[in-house]
Amino acid sequence: MVGPGRTRCCGPPGAAPAMNCRAEVLEVSVEGRQVEEAMLAVLHTVLLHRSTGKFHYKKEGTYSIGTVGTQDVDCDFIDFAYVRVSSEELDRALRKAVGEFKDALRGSGSDGMGQISLEFYQKKKSRWPFSDECIPWELWTIKVNVVNLANEQERQICREKVGEKLCEKIINIVEVMNRHEYLPKMPTQSEVDNVFDTSLKDVQPYLYKISYQITDSLGTSVTTTMRRLIKDTLAL
Amino acid sequence: MDTDLSSQDRKDLDKFIKFFALKTVQVIVQARLGEKICTRSSSSPTGSDWFNLAIKDIPEVTHEAKKALAGQLPAVGRSMCVEISLKTSEGDSMELEIWCLEMNEKCDKEIKVSYTVYNRLSLLLKSLLAITRVTPAYRLSRKQGHEYVILYRIYFGEVQLSGLGEGFQTVRVGTVGTPVGTITLSCAYRINLAFMSTRAGEDNGAVYPSVEDSQEVCTTSFSTSPPSQCVFTVTKAHFQTPPPVVTDTLKVPVMGLAFSHQLSSSRLSYQPAALGVGSADMGYPVLFAGGLHAAHPHQLIGPGKEGGVPPIPSQPAHGTQADQERMCTPLDGVHYSAATPSSSEDTETVSNSSEGKCGSPHDLLETIFVRKVGAFVNKPINQVTMANLDIPFAMFAPKNVELEDNDPMVNPPDSPETESPLQGSLHSEGSSGSSTGNTHDDFVMIDFKPAFSKDDILPMDLGTFYREFQNPPQLSSLSIDIGAQSMAEDLDSLPEKLAVHEKNVKEFDAFVETLQ
């Protein structure tokens, strides 16, 4: 299992921070029934770090920030627990995405390999008739390999091993988060929707989108995206 | 160094660091309470949630943290440390983790205090929330209760890592640069959790045994990657008695704080710096003598604690039973405000696990291994469970699949390793299965010792039963001549019986009605 890979997917080094999108790749091998929990654990951990309280703008251009609550989640099929933001809306959104990914993994033509991506982006308003541009600034990719196990003993070992691996992933995520690299600067009230997802009522994550790809048995990628994944948006 | 920092910024920075230190301690200690934590998000800022995170304050923990800090702040050479240790019901203790909040000399003069430092400290706290769940001590703390408890100790000054044993690992939670230095938060955790149980009268000093020594008593040591299961030797396992837990329904009206005093004291006890390894006097017998019923929880906490709390009723720990009432959901009544002295209608309590994953005592007990030596020394950890140790025929746990050979009722061996010399005779055709040689003269008379029978009390009672069981008398109704006679009689009496039954039809119907 490969640890996180760190690459700059766009823009030359030394360019303005807004031009760079850092990409982190995590790989996990899990049993079929563990896919959902493993994905949620990673995605929630990332979003915990990429969510703030709701902004309340006041006069004079200042703003106050709401409070983010957290809660522990125990996994049923993995010996693992993680912390997520206390937001049912956010949890539902992630579960929906992960559920679709899991179904696609199980689907025909899949060899049990796929990847799910969580991308944080900023919107750049364009003048009519051009549509707004989405500029990614951070991309998390989780590569999944689904294994089939023969008996209960193997499953038990898998529970523990996957739990240990997820702990390593959490440590990797935290390490990346605390590098304090580029983050979009805090927006004014008129720009807040270009940086944050303000649709949730209790928390405010950075704008994000989730997409996934399934690798079929021939090894080719069958792209099934929920939303368009933009890889080369930084050619500005 | 500070000349570039305005006095307001300096004041703010000191305040941030101070409250960051206090919140760090809260997060760490609360993560070791053994229960799931749940706090609510609030879209409206209350102004009292530091770093925009809903982290509740346990008063005792804050008090101890402030006491340890004694008005100082973490600085170069002065670190704030939270030590997490484990103490068993037998008095053995072991340091599990040391969380260190340190400051080094590397300054970031350009950084904005009131904005960037604050937000980065918030991010660091989130990282701490995540990391506290992935070290080995988290799983241990979730299973604490009757057999062991998790303790914490806060101290200020030099970091002491010697108690973690050899080969401890460290994980860095994160760093935040400030104009006066770089704040670093890290954790050093023990990886060798193999444990030597010390009995009274034996060597009490071996608290941290080497792996080789401990393998005699433990089935396995730990892997080096977090988290791992905990292996202890315990003489008794009281599976029926639910481990002591915290009461949840105590409503603390005025101060608006969710966590009652018991929460910290029942299971997670403060161990003052003066408390040495061997001093089990302080609250130890109190904790484990029949749970916490008789205990005044504050005995477990350093002196000077205010307030009295009622005795803590028994309640299952995480993993044994579900307690739905204590599940904390975001839909619970009131958002908690740490400093607002408003009364709260509902206390937001720590949620207990109600998930079915650990719905049986099995999970609580999977950390407990009893045998010092014996059949399971070489078994891998995932095979050694209480089920294996507890089943009456564990010694006969079959390595082969022939049921009859392993069935002790049929073939009770004298000892696990030796087959009964009578096995052949018990299986031979026509044999009465007798053991005490009443049939064949060429057989040696050997006492028949069935499994679990005792020779001193009612000798051969069980053996007699076995013998009779092997050759029961034939049922009288099955013998041909008797059967033939009764058959004829039965047939003759049938019409009369039918007539009687028909008369009583109503009674039968009424009876059937009552059954439905």
Automatic annotation (TrEMBL), chain A:
GO terms for cellular component: Atg1/ULK1 kinase complex; phagophore assembly site. It is found in: Preautophagosomal structure. The keyword Hydrolase does not apply. It comes from the Eukaryota. GO terms for molecular function: protein kinase binding. The keyword DNA-binding does not apply. GO terms for biological process: autophagosome assembly. Pfam families: ATG101. Its main location: other. Keywords: Autophagy. Belongs to the ATG101 family. This is Autophagy-related protein 101.
Automatic annotation (TrEMBL), chain B:
The keyword Cytoplasm applies. One of its GO terms (cellular component) is cytosol. It comes from the Eukaryota. Belongs to the ATG13 family. Metazoan subfamily. Residues 424-437 have a biased composition (Low complexity). Residues 339-355 have a biased composition (Polar residues). One of its GO terms (biological process) is regulation of autophagy. Residues 89-195 form the Autophagy-related protein 13 N-terminal domain. It comes from Pipra filicauda (Wire-tailed manakin). Keywords: Autophagy, Cytoplasm. It is found in: Cytoplasm, Cytosol; Preautophagosomal structure. Residues 298-358, 404-438 are annotated as: Disordered. This is Autophagy-related protein 13. The keyword Cytoplasm applies.
